[in-house]
Amino acid sequence: MTDRTPLLNVRDLRTVFDTDSGPVCAVDGVSFAVRPGRTFALVGESGCGKTATALSVLGLVPPPGRVTAGRVELAGEDLLALGERRMRAVRGGRIGMVFQEPATALNPVFACGRQVVEAIRLHRRVGARRAKATAIDMLARAGVDDPTRRAKQYPHQLSGGLRQRVMIAMALAAGPELLIADEPTTALDVTTQWRILRLLRDLRNSDGLGVLLITHDLAVVADSADSVGVMYAGQLVETADAGAMFAEPAHPYTRGLLSCAARLGDGRGRFAAIAGAPPDLSAPPSGCRFHPRCPAGRDDQRCSSARPPLRTVSPGHWCACWQCSGDGANASASRRSERPAAQPDRRRGQEHTDDT
Amino acid sequence: MNRPATTRSLRRRAGRKLVRSPMAMACAGVIALYVAAAVFAAFALTPRWPTSHDYARANQPPSLAAPLGTDAFGRSVLTKTLLGAKVSLTVGLVTNVIAIPLGMVLGAAAGYYGRRLDDVVMWLVATLAAIPGIVRVIALKFAFADTVLLDGTPLRLDLGGMVGVCVALSLTFWIGTCRLVRAEAMKIRQSDYVLAARAAGRSGPGILFAHVLPNVMHIGVVNFSLGFVAAVMAEVVLSYLGIGVAVGAPSWGSMINAARSDLIVGRWWELTAAVGAIFVLVLAMDLLGDRLRNALDPKAGKA
Amino acid sequence: MGAFILRRLGQAVLTVGGVMLVTFVLFRVVAGDISANYLSPDAPPEARERFYRRHGLDRPLLVDTSKPITSAAFWDSQFTRHVIDSVTFRATSYATGQSVGRTIIERAPYSLALTMPAMALGWLIALALALLTARCRDTWVDRLGVVAATAGMCIPLLAYMIVGQWLVFRVAPGAAWGVRHAGNIYVPVAIAVLASLGGNVRLYRTIILEEISRDYVRTARAKGATMSRALLGHVLPNCALPILTQLVMAIPFLVMGSLLLESFFGIPGLGGQLVASISRRDVPIVTALTFLTALLYVAGLLATDILYAVSDPRVRLK
């Protein structure tokens, strides 16, 4: 597997929730790729569908939700087509997941060590003692101090940061190739946040992991991500390398997000904010979902009637906006080497969704 | 600022959800049928309830003349069933109309004021809970069996009969509601809007009635349906044991008692009528209560 | 921990005291003329007075106001007698003259022979069924289970009893008529188990489903565990506490037996005894038995508190 071949390739993923007020499309035609040894960050406000995307990859979308379309390829193999038994081997064995709230994500009545051991023994045939030793090893690698003692302790006896380290140890215990981290630092204080992010980066570098990092915090993205995807109302509206995204954000939403982030020494009098609120997904706005809040597209006829497809702004930088700058050309075959591998299907997928 | 649990929009949404659910509407329909039957029985059948026996027509299986057959004294089982509906519905209603508000007020007061009042109420609850349910009811009924309140007035309350049953049952059913409401009231006490009301100078009872009680209404409503079922079942047991409402009038429990040896000799109609009537009513109320609980749950309904 | 237990013990004493007070009020103060149950209506007033004197019913209720107010004045009252007799189980029945302690020892085993197997079996089966429906959530198994459980809840115990007897009569006529032969206890036990299944399955199912939606179950599945493993290995240990609590709280009432089943099948247990005593205003028996139940109840409360403290690591390792 070369460095360029994506480890995780998500194409036109669509996940729908059948609620009392009608079907809600929480993930609407999302495509992105995660490369080995690199971190892809999925950014957006709460409720934009980031967690639903992650759960869809693992096949853990809770009812009344279900994945209705798309492909999720892990090293070429479509996970959505796998039966439950083989999917279980993938969960934990090839994809590890770290959740947002370690206090509730860990079982309160079992000791931490035991929970890590379970993660190991579900995928590797090892004896109890070997597993226990590996677990303590894993805890040490995750930066847990005095791992032998900590392994015997219960989650409520550990601080938030330690709990998150236990979760990371658990997720990586069976040696997966991909790590999905869903808001891993949101529940932690700032100092601990940076430590955990550093840990994730070190583990990624040493093990060649691909990391899918889900967050709403742009600072986390700036610190840890190699490439970024911005989600709004269940759709991917912009994707690029992190540097390019921060330097030249193309989508009005991304630009709004970046201007909202307070910067020290900025000297500005007030906080900028994006007017309005995220849409109700059971009745989303027509055309571009962001247009009611978009300073540029609010009154534009095209923005309110047709959903913009993802188009190249510059090499490797994609934006779904009628107002985006750039050559405005759709992806062409000649750009093969630069664009994410999902491209041709993405275009096809977009044509389908333009009709909605 | 925490939002109150039972805002008006929540109630409206609950109402809408209920109306939309075919199951809930079917159950409500069934209960309405029972109510109609009870009212009909109260006015049309009671005066004509036979006090004499007609042995020629005793123990007949269902036929056109007696759609549900006749009992050991020749009386129509159908009539008995309808009259039993009157008894059961009355007991279910009156018992809970007494028990639920009692439990709610005491629970809210105990939870909100805390300390001494809470200790007293909890002591009362624990004391009553320590005595097994049926024993409580039987004991109360026996204790009051000879007592007649307000004798000589139009409001004569013979505690030996129907009133006694209702009072005895409600004095044991208020506990469940009280506990639940107390727990909720303790949470509400900490909430922001209560704090705001106190900061604005609102008095204790004022807050109790304006803020606490409206927000525990949903508990009361749900417990009403549960309590109704429990009251009906308890009355059946009491009548079976012979200590239910007045001995003369039929009730489902007394029907079961009369028919308890009938099944073995092949006479199934009286037993089936009574058990069937109980089953359908209790099922309808239970399912409706279930839908109610789902509808009133502020967490449900979100994606 | 010690202070906690002390406090609970204090509450327990108050509760039992409350029970004594309630039974006292119900059966002595309000009950009216007790002797009417034991003497014929034409008995001369002297007979009545003799009855009262023999059973101490002529003493003042609470306090003897004719004497100076010392502790002796309280000592001689009915209430004190009431309390002492109950606590020491020395009270004797008005009807049979037998001491309460004796009655309890003779009759309790019969009640327990019915309620203990019924509870154990009922609990196990209900738990297994609830786990099954939770595992097969949203399939026909689950729906059938819920429907059956709901329907089962709505049928009165009386119906189970009568129909049960009829069924047994068709299959093994000898067993249907009562428990003269000890082995036939399986009939009322089976009936009790069946009748309790509906409600228990619903209850346990609710508890289990509530735990299933917790985050740590999602974590377990993300680790690659099967749903069954998550249920049995993760959810069950967390559910154990509420379920066990309910069980422990039901134990005190086991001694009383089921008064309906006992009277129907002729089992000489404590439940039937209690009802008969209430109807006869056999005050000593009633108060002693309720005292016993109250005692067991508060013991049960204490036991559940200790259970919580011991088994939940969050409480244990404060």
Helix and strand topology:
The complex is a heterotrimer of chains A (356), B (303) and C (318).
Chain A: E1 8-19, E2 22-34, E3 39-43, H1 50-58, E4 65-74, E5 77-78, H2 84-93, E6 95-98, H3 102-105, H4 112-121, H5 128-141, H6 147-151, H7 160-172, E7 178-182, H8 190-207, E8 210-215, H9 218-224, E9 227-232, E10 235-241, H10 242-247, H11 252-260, H12 301-305, E11 311-314, E12 317-319, H13 343-353
Chain B: H1 8-20, H2 22-45, H3 77-113, H4 115-129, H5 133-144, E1 148-149, E2 157-158, H6 162-189, H7 192-199, H8 204-240, H9 252-258, H10 269-296
Chain C: H1 2-29, H2 45-54, H3 71-75, H4 78-88, H5 100-135, H6 140-153, H7 157-171, H8 186-212, H9 215-222, H10 227-250, H11 259-265, H12 270-279, H13 283-311, H14 313-316
Could you name the key traits of this structure?
heterotrimer; A: 356 residues; eight-stranded mixed sheet; four-stranded antiparallel sheet; 13 helices; globular; disordered C terminus; B: mainly alpha; MetI-like fold; two-stranded antiparallel ribbon
Indicate the proportion of strand residues of chain B: under 5%
Instruction: Name the overall outline of chain A.
Output: globular
Share of helix among residues of chain A? 25-40%
The stretches of 5 or more residues of chain B where confidence is low (pLDDT under 50) are 1-6
N to C succession of SSEs of chain A:
EEEHEEHEHHHHHEHEHEEHHHEEH
> Strand order within the widest sheet of chain A?
6-7-8-3-9-10-12-11
Number of helices of chain A: 13
Give the terminus-to-terminus CA distance of chain B. 23 Å
Structural class assignment of chain B: mainly alpha
Proper CATH architecture of chain B? Orthogonal Bundle
**How far is the N terminus from the C terminus of chain A?**
38 Å
The count of strands of chain A amounts to 12
- Percent in helix of chain B: 55-70%
Q: Biggest sheet of chain B: strands, sense, closure?
A: 2 strands, antiparallel
Number of helices in the DSSP assignment of chain B: 10
- Radius of gyration of chain A from CA coordinates: 21 Å
Quaternary organization:
heterotrimer
H-E string of chain B: HHHHHEEHHHHH
Query: What percentage of the residues of chain A does DSSP assign to strands (E)?
Result: 15-25%
Number of domains of chain B: 1
User: For the record, what CATH class of chain B applies?
Assistant: Mainly Alpha
